[in-house]
């Protein structure tokens, strides 16, 4: 069992504190977290910094901490631009990048804001990832797709990690889970997914891995867990629900039930349940007082989970 921590991204206009961010990232290294992760939300009520820039800042302030995003909705990106940015970050961090990808398959997502036809999102996702992988591994690149075409193009430098950074697939439906098992290096369960649902997703992923003959390929399974530790459980739950409503643009009983809140004992029990459901890596995601929460999680909660 390994643990990751979310990197600070919540920042209202004019309040970013570089020294505090650097202290948080270096402290995460000192506390032994494997990696620090971001989220992507271009549009939304929660003031959230962009993941690539946050990871780049963290890379400059740390030496060992791996850095990831769970997940990039790659359907909404130009695959050429995204491939270039991620290859650059992998070089700058000397191979510490982890890349989560997802289709953004919810029909209510604002696809028109990105010039994307919602009826083509899955085809764009599949072709876009194929193009990114090609740009990372081939030179020159000739590519003929339905959405993008290149003729003898070159992209240098390639990623530091060969052939490219680990790709974690998000998703919840059976087809997405099987795609993860077939094409990815890992599956990342969403923070909005309750533990029981995550356990069912893990079952599907493991069945698909067996069908694909990938049981021994080093495929990893992770889950984001929104967490809040407080000696007052009611206060922890209220603060968590308020934050989740801003992150997800509204209240959702399902999303709120997925969060792990309460006393040290209660949070440890919730994280053990996630581990028993199949998570080999748990991404701890405090949504307020992140530095203080990280310290309590490391000192008081995690020893009870792993002990």
Defining key terms:
alpha/beta, 43% helix, 307 residues, single chain, 19% strand, two-stranded antiparallel ribbon, 10 helices
Low-confidence region ranges: none
The biggest beta sheet, please? 8 strands, parallel, barrel
DSSP, total strands = 11
Number of helices: 10
For the termini, the CA-CA separation is 11 Å
Overall SS class:
alpha/beta
Taken in chain order, the helices and strands follow as EHEHEHEHEEEHEHEHHEHEH
Mean pLDDT rating: 95
What is the 3D form?
A: globular
Q: Approximately how much beta-strand content do the residues carry? A: 15-25%
Order of strands in the sheet with most strands: 1-2-3-4-7-8-9-11
Radius of gyration from the CA trace? 19 Å
Helix residue percentage: 40-55%
Task: Tell me what you see in this structure.
- The chain contains ten helices and eleven strands.
- Helix 2 (51-61) packs parallel to helix 3 (79-92) and helix 3 (79-92) crosses helix 4.
- Helix 1 links the parallel strand 1 and strand 2 (35-38).
- Helix content is 43%, strand content 19%.
- It is α/β, with parallel strands linked by helices and 307 residues long.
- The model has no long low-confidence stretch (mean pLDDT 95).
- The N and C termini lie close together (11 Å).
- The protein has an eight-stranded parallel β-barrel, surrounded by eight helices. A two-stranded antiparallel ribbon has the order 5-6.
């Amino acid at each position: 069992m390994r643990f990751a921590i979310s990197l600070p991204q919540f920042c209202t206009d004019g309040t970013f504190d570089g020294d505090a961010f650097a202290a948080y990232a270096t402290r995460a290294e000192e506390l032994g977290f494997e990696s620090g992760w971001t989220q992507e939300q271009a549009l939304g009520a929660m003031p959230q910094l962009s993941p690539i820039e946050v990871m780049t800042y963290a890379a400059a302030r740390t030496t060992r901490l791996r850095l990831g995003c769970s997940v990039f909705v790659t359907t909404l990106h130009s695959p050429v631009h995204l491939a270039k940015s991620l290859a650059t970050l992998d070089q700058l961090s000397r191979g510490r990048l982890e890349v989560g990808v997802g289709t953004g398959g919810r029909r209510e997502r604002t696809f028109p804001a990105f010039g994307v036809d919602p009826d083509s999102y899955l085809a764009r996702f599949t072709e876009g990832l194929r193009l990114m992988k090609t740009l990372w591994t081939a030179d020159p690149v000739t590519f003929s797709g339905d959405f993008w075409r290149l003729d003898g193009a070159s992209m240098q430098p390639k990623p530091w990690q060969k052939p490219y950074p680990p790709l974690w697939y998000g998703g919840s439906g059976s087809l997405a889970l099987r795609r993860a098992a077939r094409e990815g290096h890992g599956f990342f369960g969403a923070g909005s997914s309750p533990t029981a649902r995550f356990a069912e997703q893990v079952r599907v992923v493991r069945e698909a891995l067996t069908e694909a003959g990938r049981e021994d390929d080093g495929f990893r399974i992770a889950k984001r867990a929104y967490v809040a530790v407080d000696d007052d459980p009611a206060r922890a739950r209220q603060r968590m629900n308020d934050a989740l409503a801003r992150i997800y643009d509204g209240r959702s009983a399902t999303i709120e039930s997925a969060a792990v809140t309460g006393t040290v004992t209660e949070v440890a029990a919730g994280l053990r349940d996630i581990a028993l459901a199949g998570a080999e890596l748990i991404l701890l995601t405090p949504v307020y007082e992140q530095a203080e929460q990280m310290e309590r999680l490391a000192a008081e909660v995690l020893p009870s989970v792993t002990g």
